[in-house]
Recover the amino acids of this structure.
């Protein structure tokens, strides 16, 4: 019921070239008292989505810092994940009624995850709602030993209150709760002392690493994108939360005035996500026959290095999400010196400082106006892009997140000691 | 390099309810002298496509008849399959130049299949061009023991002659060559005595088995198809050979007069076929926003039983292929009492008797005319559908194919004896 995920090796020293040696020394120093600390991450999937991306970076780096970190994923089966997707949607504010039957399955499955939890750990980090209930089914003896942390990555700014109330039931079984923004903890009445931590991007991953202009152009050529015409892109899965229709509408508005505009929509598709396929079809049909709109995804062979090149080759990056827990993809584009036009929701507001390093928008018309502005004012766009890069460098790179984790681990260990 | 495919169990007796006991007794009698005959099938894939479908039915039935049948697939890797897909396309008449480099890889890979062939067999059946060259690399000692059969399932009615000439090189290494139609052997100058055998459909498979009207309607409802409005469908992968754009054009022509017409496009998608995904996207975009066009595929959970129901619920089934080796899907629909509107190409002409049990058409305009006719003349459609069912029953059901195979095995074994 729980499967270990192998996550390779990474060296913390490699990051000093990006964030400087001082922060890396501090991390090493903090980690000294935590050597051998057993940390177990539990999440719902090893593929796709921000949580998996974060763990593939932080888990091996913590190991490199001397901690004993593991990562396991739950095997929930399709019916279970349909329920947890609904819980996720409910937490993000979509209409949804949690039935007795769903609760029963959700809890039964979580009970068996708990029963199958074999590893001893000092710290157990449970990511998102899917495995959240399992801590409540751990026998007291096991509970005492480990400190349990719930890390919610979702946008909790305007949830369905009934779903929050249900989920709150499990909060008392955690020693710490981490959310991305202060307001995300407000709907919960029983979190004593929430931690507010924003996720970060990995500047050394294939998706974010430097890419030369010539390599970028070669990849863009190979994807048959015209590098001499203006490009706007959104990198997001096909999902109502990401508003792909709104992206196409924005493009169409701008296209009225900038005739040679191209729109690139890039997604990672999960084979086992029928809803994703369905929404991809809907989006493709909404795009219709228009050679200036191009879709790219892993199933047609577009991977991380291509995403890297597409973001770099874009004149404007848009993120038209309706909700966004954080929105790693915004920082990814900003890191590549791109001013992002993003909706004023959730974690996007943490990254974009309106009119400084990008634009926060609310409507499609506003989005179109800002996209047009950035394409027509290259110097201004460049200036904002530079600020975007610096803002990410100062706030949203992996070492900062590691620092936060080490602080929390230290605090929780002290309570034990 | 060769992987065995497990194919379960089937009982030949079960087929007597469909084709009568006499044919089944004859099959058993013919099989008596062939008991223990070692037959090895080699094909390129265990998933998707007609060849795999045929083998999942015939292999276990031959085992049930006392033969020792195995099925192995080659592991060719992506680059190899890109070449063989081109060879396949060239054999069906698409422009394509076979380079020295492609020939080198094709033959080297086939050489290693040959070297990895461990099983002893009396008869080796090689399906389609992908593993065709391997027989030429078998050491003479091994060659003597087994009789080699090449079974070509492609439409060879108007191939690229250079590709045929290249492929002909391997014909001398086969003891028998089987094609679907007499004219498919004409482009080859060195086949001594070709066999002409049409494939068949399995009336007891989940895709073809009887389905009650209520079960059909329940499935149609669940797929959110309106059973009270006229339905036309094509069941085919998204591929230029299947002309999905032409299907949409046909629908649009008919829709001008039959306003409530629905089009259902059903496909099986292979995860490892980027071209298929690309063509799906193109087709979806060509369809555009039209709630009366519905796409269904395995990735959104539509499987064999749904295909069965969709074919049964359709008023007209269309098959607008540009080439078609045989076109099992035509017989599948005919078996379900549907008159099929199909292009006058390849194996479709073997199944549809124009204006009797369906319509053979050449242009989109003709297709639209016939689709309209069948929707507006329900009695006539019903009468043609009955004839279609009977024609398939008499010609294209599994036991007939088994009979043909047993005859060939007997003939080849006698030559040995």
């Amino acid at each position: 019921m729980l499967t270990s995920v192998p996550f390779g090796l990474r060296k913390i020293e490699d990051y000093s070239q990006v964030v400087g040696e001082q922060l890396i020394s501090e991390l090493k120093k903090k980690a000294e008292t935590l050597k051998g600390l057993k940390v177990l991450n539990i999440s719902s999937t090893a593929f796709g989505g921000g949580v998996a991306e974060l763990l593939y970076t932080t888990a091996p780096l913590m190991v490199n810092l001397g901690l004993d970190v593991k990562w396991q994923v739950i095997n929930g089966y399709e019916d279970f994940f349909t329920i947890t997707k609904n819980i996720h949607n409910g937490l993000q504010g979509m209409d949804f009624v949690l039935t007795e039957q769903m609760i029963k399955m959700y809890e039964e499955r979580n009970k068996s995850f708990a029963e199958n939890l074999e590893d001893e750990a000092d710290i157990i980090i449970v990511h998102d709602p899917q495995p959240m209930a399992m801590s409540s089914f751990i026998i007291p003896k096991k509970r005492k030993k480990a400190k349990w942390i719930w890390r919610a990555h979702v946008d909790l700014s305007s949830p369905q209150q009934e779903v929050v109330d249900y989920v709150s039931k499990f909060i008392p079984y955690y020693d710490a709760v981490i959310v991305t923004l202060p307001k995300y903890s407000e709907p919960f009445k029983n979190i004593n002392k929430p931690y507010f931590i924003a996720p970060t991007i990995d500047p050394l991953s294939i998706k974010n690493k430097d890419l030369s202009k010539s390599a970028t152009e070669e990849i863009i050529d190979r994807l048959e994108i015209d590098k001499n015409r203006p490009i706007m892109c959104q990198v997001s899965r096909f999902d109502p939360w990401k508003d792909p229709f709104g992206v196409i509408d924005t493009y169409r508005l701008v296209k009225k005035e900038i005739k040679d505009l191209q729109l690139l929509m890039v997604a990672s598709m999960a084979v086992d996500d029928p809803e994703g396929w369905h929404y991809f079809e809907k989006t493709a049909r909404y795009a219709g026959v228009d050679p200036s709109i191009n879709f790219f995804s892993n199933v047609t062979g577009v991977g991380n290095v291509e995403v890297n090149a597409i973001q770099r080759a874009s004149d404007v990056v848009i993120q038209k999400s309706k909700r966004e827990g954080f929105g790693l993809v915004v920082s990814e584009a900003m890191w590549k010196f791109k001013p992002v036009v993003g909706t004023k929701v959730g974690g996007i507001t943490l990254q974009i400082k309106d009119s400084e390093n990008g634009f926060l928008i609310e409507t499609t018309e506003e989005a179109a106006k800002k996209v047009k502005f950035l394409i027509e004012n290259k110097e201004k766009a460049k200036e904002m892009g530079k600020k975007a890069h610096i803002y990410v460098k100062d706030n949203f790179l992996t070492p900062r997140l590691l620092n936060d984790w080490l602080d929390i681990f230290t605090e929780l260990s002290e309570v034990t000691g």
